[in-house]
Specification:
The chain has 520 residues and is of the alpha/beta class. The protein is built from 19 helices and 25 strands.
Length: 520
Amino acid sequence: MTRIRRAIISVTDKRGIVDFARELSEMGVEIISTGGTGEMLKNSGIGIIPISSYTGFPEMLDGRVKTLHPKIHGGILGIRENETHKKEMKDYGIPPIDMVVVNLYAFEETVRKGGVFEEAIENIDIGGPTMIRASAKNFNDVACVTDPEDYDRIIREMRENNGCLSKKTRFYLARKAFQLTARYDAAISNYLGLLSDEAEKKEGVVFPETYTVQFRKIQDLRYGENPHQGASFYASTGNGVRGIAGARRLHGKELSFNNILDLNSALEIVTAFDEPCAVIVKHNNPCGVGTSDEGLVTAYNRALSCDRVSAFGGIVGFNRRVSEDLARVLTEIFLEAVVAPGFDEKALDILSTKKNLRVVEVEGLSSDGFEIKTVSGGVLIQTPDTGNTEDIRVVTRRKPTEDELRDMLFAWKVCRYVKSNAIVLAKGGQTIGIGAGQMSRVDSTRIALWKAEDGGFNPEGSVLASDAFFPFRDSIDLVARKKVRAVIQPGGSVRDEEVIDACNEHDIAMVFTGRRHFRH
């Protein structure tokens, strides 16, 4: 156990620091402090030694230099059981520092708020990371405290052990310290990398030469996609915990690996719509999507009617709060989970009667700028598929009606979240048939038509969305026999004219978006 006799405190995040310092002072710990932190502690009646008095040097260069001094770093790095270290520290008048309480300039916050380059540079901390790394390296003798959430734990242990901290705790603190400095340096590296002249630019987006990310474990999972695979759930540390990683489970069993994937897909889909929207997801594909200005009950019933068989055991997502009436409808079939931005109290009471139903509250998507997909030996990094529809143009003789165009844009949004090759049939603000994940586009078309008819829908008058161009006219001829009236697709095939001619022959309206929606 290491007795804490002397501590240096210099924090940007001042949550709880006064109470923590007061507890240390009451246990006889001598406190050395810097600038604003020192003033706060002194004004709170806590005795401190100003850093300039301790080192004999003033804070200088606009505060850039204040802790970079042998008396500070010698006191931190000296090994207590090393006779040579002990002699040198004594010869040069360097007392040991047993605890370093430091967190860093708010570089990430400055950048996130749009601070100018010069402001970002001034928020690159130098002294803080140096003290953190030094004290974490020497964890055998020094406690490195970087997180206000640990203050209570540290005080409890010190009170129980006559002012001492165990090696186990010091190692725990050191591990967190290096995780902090790794994240901090990564944020700086990524920021500067995005400004690099060598960085490749694609559609206005810069891809830096190196890109560093850090994830923090939220929880261990029972298993991965299959029971023989181990798995854990990690959250991005860059911009706080948001999206599915920041979701709150209000009821039901722990989320599984596959639950999390499906919940994320459901969240992505419903947040793409401004109007009330419901989606049912199965195996990372939507099996039904519905919208309605009448509210979520109607939207859900529309989503459910698209594929009632596949909906069994599915994940349901909404972009509005779940009401009592909606909750009653949701209990009529077996569902794995429901995700929404909120739940009325009575709605939660009703859903909680279903023992195995997971009820998940999440505010919205997290946007970290890039999507990352792992491959053997590396990762692929891309910008998100935003699904822009500004470049839509009619390519057939017949123009779509207003109702058809509305359904086409709805189907085009849904298509973005369906595994390729993807075909979506829609009518009246709901999907009526979805063909997903086929190696042949015409097979996806066949499946979408079969799903529609099997679900009791008449495809006549519906619209079709395709995530990529049609390589042949076969799909158009197929849907024409069912009197599908309009098609939305990217275009770009060498046989575009053949496909356009087919639509003209069948009096089908078709528009090109100029942008595809592959999803692998």
